[in-house]
Design goal:
- By secondary structure, the chain is α/β, with parallel strands linked by helices.
- The chain has two domains: 125 residues, Periplasmic binding protein-like II (D-Maltodextrin-Binding Protein, domain 2); 180 residues, 3-Layer(aba) Sandwich (D-Maltodextrin-Binding Protein, domain 2), CATH 3.40.190.10.
- It is 44% helix and 17% strand.
- Strands 1, 2, 3, 4, 5, 6, 7, 8, 9 and 10 form a ten-stranded mixed β-sheet that branches.
- Strand 6 and strand 7 form a beta hairpin.
- It is globular.
- The termini are far apart.
């Protein structure tokens, strides 16, 4: 009996160590599925299709990673970073705001880019041309929307029914571009920046272009989905990233009359990762540097640093019977964080 008791104690001790060891291994494997380490990411809504693409998941898995992408407006991200491995807003200014509120684990990484654009319909472009708000670019033949002319027209409360010969959209609504909220969304904040440049800093005119819309969404994907769903009945002009339009055209398809306008001026939005963990640093560099992941980004409409990847995808889309521009000439430089914050503060005060 005296010899059995130590054996019993030894077995119990080994069982305890085994249980503890198993628990520790389990803790180490939290976030692992199918041999991959899972990261949590906050991403702009326009990038969800990319992260949900099975080919992207497979390309990440080859390197031992998976990403759980949670949607958030770029300007909602600064207050939501705890528990995430990286945040992926849609501009360097938005990335700087996140960095000001969170502890970054490494340098920002620009993964790909996309200019702001306006999704609309060919019949609407015809009306805008009559109203002297839009015209074809003489160099590349794409359609351009004059933001200064748009702001001036809105100051006069130009309505669709005021445009001569309008039988396409005979509604007494102001001619507007539908956007998300500047306080939430990078695309809308960047649109405010462009309007600020176009109007020479006329905050009142800028605020009116937003407040005249009434209730608006918080992400860039919501108005675009409404555009696709209603065929322009809710909003005939919608602010988008060019990538959203290209992704839809190439990977899903349009009904036939959808087209694209580029605002004048415009800005190239550089979609930038702010790493929030060491794993986030590694995956940010992978997303920016891996040829397959960059090819898949191009497949979803984003402009990559290697134009040979994105160029063939852009060539497949001819809105308004004109090729998409290979380069976005004349795009304004990204606003710096402080200037953008000051503009948005003034705009929110004017809109309240």
């Amino acid at each position: 009996m005296n010899r059995i008791r130590p054996l019993i104690i030894l077995v119990v001790v080994l069982a305890i160590f085994g249980a503890v060891g198993g628990w520790l291994l389990g803790r180490a494997d939290i976030g692992r599925a199918g041999g991959t380490t899972e990261l949590k990411a906050l991403v702009g809504s326009e990038k969800l299709a990319y992260f949900n693409d099975p080919a992207v998941k497979q390309a990440l898995a080859k390197h031992g990673w998976s990403v759980r992408a949670d949607q958030a407006g770029s300007r909602q991200m600064p207050t939501r970073t705890p528990g995430y491995d990286f945040a992926f807003p849609s501009s360097r200014a938005a990335a700087a705001e996140i960095r000001a509120h969170a502890h970054a684990a490494g340098d920002d990484v620009v993964v790909f880019s996309s200019p702001l654009a306006i999704a609309t319909f060919s019949q609407i472009v015809d009306l805008l041309q009559v109203a002297k708000l839009a015209a074809r670019d003489p160099a590349d033949r794409v359609w351009r929307l004059d933001l200064k002319a748009l702001a001036d027209a809105n100051q006069r409360n130009l309505k669709w029914t005021d445009i001569p010969g309008n039988t396409t959209r005979p509604v007494a609504q102001n001619v507007l571009v539908a956007t998300a909220r500047p306080a939430d969304s990078n695309s809308a904040a960047m649109f405010a920046y462009l309007l600020n440049q176009a109007t020479g800093g006329n905050i009142g005119a800028i605020a009116k272009l937003f407040t005249d819309q009434g209730a608006v969404d918080s992400t860039s994907e919501e108005p675009f989905e409404a555009y696709l769903r209603t065929g322009g009945n809710s909003a005939p002009m919608v602010l988008v990233y060019e990538a959203q339009f290209v992704d839809q055209a190439v990977n899903v398809g349009f009904k036939g009359q959808e087209t694209l306008l580029y605002p004048t001026p415009t800005v190239m939005c550089r979609h930038t990762i702010v790493p929030l963990s060491d794993n986030g640093v590694t995956v940010a560099k992978l997303l920016a540097g891996d040829p397959e992941l960059q090819r898949l980004a191009a497949k979803h409409g984003f402009r990559t640093a290697d134009a040979s990847l994105s160029g063939p995808v852009l060539d497949k889309v001819r809105p308004g019977d004109a090729a998409l521009p290979k380069t976005v000439d004349g795009a304004l430089a990204d606003p710096d964080f402080q200037s953008q914050q000051a503009l948005l503060k003034s705009l929110e005060e004017k809109m309240s």
